[in-house]
Write a structure and sequence with these properties.
heterodimer, A: alpha/beta, Rossmann fold, four-stranded antiparallel beta sheet, 10 strands, B: alpha+beta, 2 domains, ten-stranded mixed beta sheet, two-stranded antiparallel ribbon, 11 helices, 14 strands, elongated
Chain lengths: 227, 392
Amino acid sequence: MSYIQVHDLSKQYGEGEAAVQAVRGINFNIASGELVAVMGESGSGKSTLLTVMGALNSPAGGKYWVDKIDVYALGREERADFRRNYLGFVFQSFHLIPYLTVRENVMLPLTPVRMKKSEKRAMAEEALGRVGLAGKGERLPGQISGGEQERAAIARAVVNRPPILLADEPTGNLDTKNTREVMNLLKELNAGGMTIVMVTHNPECARYARRILRLSDGVLVEENTLQ
Amino acid sequence: MNLWNIALRNLRRRKSKAAFVLVGLTIGVSAVVVFISLAEALTENINSKLEEYGANILIVPKTENLSMSYGGISLGGVLFEMQEIHEEELAKIGEIANAKNVAAVGPMLLGAVDIGGRKALLAGMDFRVIYQLRPWWKFQGNVPDEEGVLAGASAARLLGLEVGKPVAVNGRRLLVSGILDATGSQDDHILFTDLAAAQSILHKEGRISLAEVAALCSGCPIEEMVRQISEILPGANVMAIKQVVEGRMETLNHFRKVSYGLSAIVVLAGALVVLVTMMGSVRERTAEIGIFRAIGFRSSHIMRIILLEAAIVSVLAGVLGYLLGLGATKIALLFFVAGSGGHAGHGGIAVPLDPLLAGGALLLAVVLGLAASFYPARLAARLDPCEALRTL
């Protein structure tokens, strides 16, 4: 059994005539340690697929398993635990909490975890070091550049060492140089065994992936494995 | 990093909202503190006044006659055979079991006198205890000695008496040493002089018509004292004068009830301020809550953050509310006491730090803050993380 299994997944927004089918009949598997890019035009259902895979958005139909766990058979709170233990999120607009320092932002996923403060701090420092932000932990998000904010968001996503990283347009707001740095960072994390699913518009970013899933109008229309 | 840090940082960031909640709660708590401590202080004030000049006990001779007055109108010219008490019998009051509760004993002799062809009532009394027995008296001039007389306001007006001028009482020349300000009581119609002088003028040496006892009465067994005095003075009728005290206590009880009603309204208003502000705060933080949920915070974690924020502000409001309430009570009491026209000696009412009230204020603030924040916290906890993230 593959590590991630998506079977006949569908999701619609709204009811009746106003209903919009965001994704439908999607099937794919992802092996542990893969880096998969999800591509498609705006409105093709990429982000919806990612939120469903992020255990944030219950599908209308189909099944979604991670590590043999039927994710949507879990209760609301168990899904929160699942997110904490299995998933790291990188959002398009960083979504750092502005009133917390970079280190505190990175430590956020560890907040509900019973662990010594010193251990949490050490894990945060390690994550910051991995993304090249060592020494910038005391700054507020507004005091660092966009590229650094994206890296801080990645550090927050990986601080609790989740097996899966879900990234929604992780380079969408970055220039070429920062885009390359962030993609190299994701590649590095993937090389370390982390399964990464990344939604992107950017073909350059998609080249870093081992596999590309292409969506159109909510349907998986193409699946390419890159050499 | 823990939930406490997040709550604290958020409060610092949203200072104006936190201040709004703080003000709402503080006003609610301080209003309750003001009303309660005002009622307590006034009760204490009445008690202390009772201790000073007491719920008086009146000792009058036993008589078999019925009263010939009604509603303040007496049938003039009808004379009663009035029994009297011997002055030395009053000394026995010092021997009763509750003698320590007796602050002062004021003997009084009453009798009709002739002043320039007009009849008047003369009262002889012991002026050494006058401030304990008549603390409300205000007068021009001085307390009379054996050769002086203190005239009630109406008596002075009707008899044309002036301070410093002589007056012939039953043919005996006395000096008007003072004139009482109007009291609204029967004292306005009486001429007061020293007991010995009155006994001499009325030819009733060693005898008195009645005696007033000032009992230290806060919590003292007044009925028991009446019984004890009755036992040692079998020829006297001993009564406790409690109506005034009971009237004041009744007024205070009404004040207390109104206070509690007003407190409830202010507290409700404070709770609404907290509720509305916290709802606004939760709406503002929808995206942030979405992020928390996305990275694995449980609903209970979100609730705890919101309730922790409310608890921090509430504790602060409890302390501030108590201190402000205490200050406001002190200021309010100045007006209450000034308005009561009390004797100069009763001007200051202490409002001590009451640990019970302080604890109650703190508890009230926390319970109020948490209760009013519970719904917004629950709302925040139940936010759909996907919907919340969509607001970003």
